[in-house]
Design brief:
heterodimer; A: 6-stranded mixed β-sheet; 17 helices; 22 strands; disordered N terminus; B: two-stranded antiparallel sheet; 2 strands; disordered C terminus
């Protein structure tokens, strides 16, 4: 993705933040941050979760007052006491969680807050005006559509549209790609480039290195509330940035010795099932994982991956076909019976499935282990023992928390995921299902998770990895199978395929006979 | 490592909210009393005297507190599983009626057999009456708030019918609008001489301790709490939502039935067919006690004291309805503090601050539509 070279280097400054300090009770979120953003550039603000990025932007946007430091917009000092003043000064912000009213139309949402002083709202005019702006900036949205009916990607455009409607010249986007599909991300990039090329300035908050390379002209890295450096994107590498961000050298590529697969440990044969809405979601799917290998499942989201996991873990019944763990037929067994037969499962949804956020860590260690010694004996929970196990796991898996009685809610995403992985590996399973195990994690945590998966493989476990991140899949998998419309249609051995082949297969086209799987 | 201090702190912090709420409610109540032209100090002192001053007064408070504690426990058991049991009143009355019938029978049994038999009848009858809405919710998706309200009415009418029409084959006393007087062997003994405080109060305390143990230490309690907090995580952990809510409702109804048994075999010596109202105040007791069994003992005592002290206020020249107003104010204040705890700016004053290990992550991504969205805030 080639970004147009940064505009003239001597152009005026759009945003200058000097020595920003913002303290919260017990935490210094921003500890003397400097940020200079030139007019007409896309400036990435890179840092791990919790580094202070969002706080900094909330300070800039007038939502928080800084405890120290000064802010200049267009080289004029400003003291915003609220978001409205920031908007008047030409700033626009697209939050990670959209601030839209689902029961309002696009136009109604866009004019919200700037609807004027007239008592009667001229909807037709407003709608037409919004439509014009949308067209002018290449934002393809229907002004009269209801927000609730729009996909996430379009809702985000409405947020951008609102900023543009308010005549913003500096657009701040907080982790804008978190909820988007790859196609939607590409569309977003186009919109942002266009805005930049029209003279607009963009601050792009992210913790993903790839996005920095793809979209930004310059990048400022912050770590633990401090600025650690500003670079011209084209003159730096991902490895450099990762090191700046994490504070130590990070392995971006997984060190993965050759696999030595053993006997089959997980087999799915001709399984059919229906999804949550009664649609056929697995359509005579077959799959096998052997000991000592990582099998990656690749495919566009919504092609049966979720159902595949649910059938494998015992959460969803298979209508036809069988599921085996080793030689044991587990087709009709529930989640805990499969656990006791050697299955572990790192779910996709950390907050909704993998953890009970309002439980302390030790009670989360208990999840899925309620029928197992030494956690439980005759329906009585051995709290002391479970706490001990939890503390042990926290140490071994580097879960950073003050103790086993801290609530899971208070942990960062990375530490939450580490706890889940620790719990699932504690049983020493034969099979590990990992679904999007690194989604939303920062670089350091991703490295950790990847290493754990490879270690599990090397210790003779079968690993099934489902991910929508192609890089992750190709980096980790010894074998990749492609899911399309509820079936496994192709198989690729590690290193023996091109990305194009994989992409085509994801779209349902398998060109080469040797990769195709007959159904 | 730091488990004990942090647990102690959590306990303290979760306890402070309701206490502050009660203080705030008493303050506002005092203003109201002042507006009506009476002296708040006098009124509160009269209330306090009537509820606590002397053996007999404390006994009266205990009499009111016993069914409220048991009712509050009943409500909280269901609430922990994410179920809002408005049917405590009906379960209490059905349980009490069953106990009253068994107690009235001349079985020629000694007290140590007859009393447990009566309690058992209450547990079973209340349990069945709680099971019904649980079962309907799990299998048919019928919301428990609707079904329990309907079952309350069903219970009132059913008891009326039985009391009026079945004197031939059931030990009911139509002219007293209740069951026949309990056999002396089936009466719950008085705990303190010179008071009317009966053994039902002890049963309430025992029930609270048992439930505390169940929730803190057993897999059943763990399953109920998991289901209540995150049905997605429960499914993942191999915990059946259906089974668990049915069990929780059954348990809830059984505990409510015990409250009725206290009335039937203790205080009155018979179960009357008129609604007691305890089952509804019990919801407030459960909520003010934050659904923690031990805290419910205290909130039950608080509401018991208010009820017991109401006549005292009246004799001080304040309408005793002001006590109902106070109860309402306490509920509102607790709810207000609860809501305030979710507003980030205020949260840090009323709830534990996010620990320094990472940003506070609030999340509502519990995808299962079956989950009750009321999030109990509880502490073990």
């Amino acid at each position: 993705m080639s970004s147009v070279p940064a505009p003239a280097t001597q152009s005026a400054m759009a945003i200058q933040m000097h020595g920003i300090v913002k303290r919260f009770p017990g935490v210094i979120a921003n500890d003397g941050i400097d940020l200079d953003v030139r007019r007409g550039e896309i400036h990435a603000l890179l840092g791990e979760n919790g580094a202070g990025k969002s706080t900094l932007m909330n300070v800039l946007f007038g939502i928080y007052a800084p405890d120290e430091g000064e802010i200049l917009v267009n080289e004029q000092p400003v003291h915003f006491s609220g978001a409205r003043q920031a908007v008047e000064a030409g700033l626009g912000m697209v939050h990670q969680h959209f601030m839209l009213i689902p029961r309002f139309t696009v136009a109604e949402n866009v004019i919200l807050g700037s609807e004027g002083k007239n008592i009667v709202l001229d909807r037709t005019a407003a709608s037409a005006h919004v439509g014009e702006i949308a067209k002018a900036f290449g934002l393809d949205v229907e002004p009269d559509a209801m927000i609730g009916d729009l996909p996430i990607g379009l809702q985000q455009r409405v947020e951008i549209l609102r900023a543009l409607y308010q005549k913003c010249s500096v657009l701040i986007l907080d982790e804008p790609t978190a909820l988007l599909t790859p196609q939607e991300v590409d569309e977003l990039y186009k919109i942002l480039h266009r805005f930049r090329d029209d003279g607009g300035t963009i601050i792009f908050i992210t913790h993903k290195l790839r996005e920095v390379a793809a979209i930004s002209d310059r990048v400022t890295v912050i770590r633990r509330g401090k600025t650690v450096g500003t670079r011209v994107t084209s003159e730096t590498t991902s490895a450099d940035l990762a090191e700046l961000m994490v504070g130590r050298e990070v392995l971006l590529r997984v060190d993965r010795p050759e696999a030595t697969p053993g006997e089959p440990i997980l087999s799915l044969r001709d399984v059919t099932c229906v999804g949550a809405h009664g649609q056929t979601s697995l359509d005579v799917a077959s799959l096998q994982v052997r000991r000592g290998e990582i099998v990656g499942v690749c495919g566009v989201e919504g092609n049966g991956q979720s159902e595949l996991v649910e059938v494998l873990s015992g959460l969803r019944p298979a209508l036809t076909g069988t599921c085996h763990l080793g030689d044991t037929d587990v087709t009709n067994l529930g989640p805990n019976d499969r656990r006791s037969r050697g299955l572990s499962y790192i779910p996709e949804d950390r907050h909704g499935r993998g953890l009970v956020l309002d439980f302390p860590l030790w009670e989360n260690t208990l999840l899925g282990n309620t029928e197992r010694q030494p956690f439980v004996k005759r329906f009585i929970i051995n709290g002391r023992r479970v706490r001990e196990i939890t503390r042990n796991l926290m140490q071994r898996f580097d879960v950073r928390a003050p103790g086993a009685d801290v609530h899971a809610r208070n942990l960062s995403g990375g530490n939450q995921q580490k706890l889940i992985i620790a719990r699932e590996l504690f049983r020493n399973p034969d099979v590990l299902l990992a679904i999007q195990p690194t989604r939303g994690l920062d670089v350091g945590a991703i490295e950790f998770v990847h290493r754990q998966l490879v270690e599990a493989r090397d210790s003779g476990k079968g690993v099934l990895l489902i991910s929508f991140d192609l890089d992750e899949l190709t980096d980790l998998s010894d074998r990749i199978v492609v899911m399309f419309q509820g079936r496994i249609i192709a198989e690729f051995m590690s290193g023996a395929f091109t990305r194009t082949e994989l992409g085509l297969a994801m779209g349902g086209r398998v060109a080469d006979e040797q990769h195709a799987i007959a159904s | 490592m730091s488990s004990t201090p942090s647990r102690a702190r959590n306990c303290l912090v979760t306890g402070l909210g309701p206490i502050a709420a009660v203080v705030a409610a008493l303050f506002v109540g005092g203003l109201l009393i002042a507006i009506t032209g009476s002296d708040p100090w006098e009124a509160y002192r009269a209330l306090f005297d009537r509820a606590f001053n002397g053996r007999r007064a404390i006994g009266e408070t205990g009499i009111y507190a016993a069914p409220l504690i048991l009712g509050g426990l009943a409500f909280s058991v269901a609430f922990r599983a994410g179920m809002f049991n408005v049917g405590v009143e009906g379960q209490l009355m059905i349980g009490g009626f069953a106990a009253g019938l068994v107690a009235a029978l001349d079985l020629g049994l000694p007290a140590f057999v007859h009393i447990p038999l009566g309690l058992l009848a209450a547990l079973v009858a209340g349990g069945i009456y709680g099971f019904i809405p649980g079962f309907l919710r799990a299998t048919r998706g019928a919301h428990e708030v609707i079904t329990t309200i309907m079952l309350n009415y069903l219970c009132f009418r059913l008891l009326n019918y039985l009391i009026q029409k079945s004197s031939g084959w059931l030990p009911v006393a139509t002219q007293s609008n209740g069951t026949e007087r309990a056999q002396p062997e089936a009466r719950l003994p008085i705990v303190f001489d010179g008071t009317r405080l009966h053994f039902g109060f002890v049963i309430a305390i025992i029930a609270a301790i048992v439930l505390w143990y169940v929730f803190a230490r057993t897999t059943l309690g763990y399953k109920i709490r998991t289901v209540g907090l995150s049905s997605g995580a429960a499914a993942y952990g191999g915990i059946s939502w259906k089974k668990t809510i049915i069990i929780a409702m059954l348990l809830s109804g059984a505990v409510a039935g015990l409250a009725g048994a206290g009335e039937a075999m203790g205080l009155h010596g018979r179960m009357y067919g008129t609604p007691t109202g305890y089952g509804f105040t019990a919801i407030a007791v459960g909520l003010v006690g934050r659904n923690h069994p031990i805290a419910i003992i205290f909130s039950g005592l608080l509401f018991g004291a208010l009820s017991a002290g109401a006549p005292g206020m009246q004799s001080a020249g304040v309408s005793k309805e002001i006590v109902s107003v106070l109860q309402g104010l306490i509920i509102l204040a607790v709810a207000a503090f609860e809501v305030a705890g979710r507003i980030p700016g205020i949260r840090k004053f009323v709830a534990p601050p996010p620990s320094a290990v990472g940003p506070d992550r609030s999340s509502d991504d519990d995808s299962d539509p079956d989950t009750n969205t009321t999030r109990p805030s509880v502490a073990i």
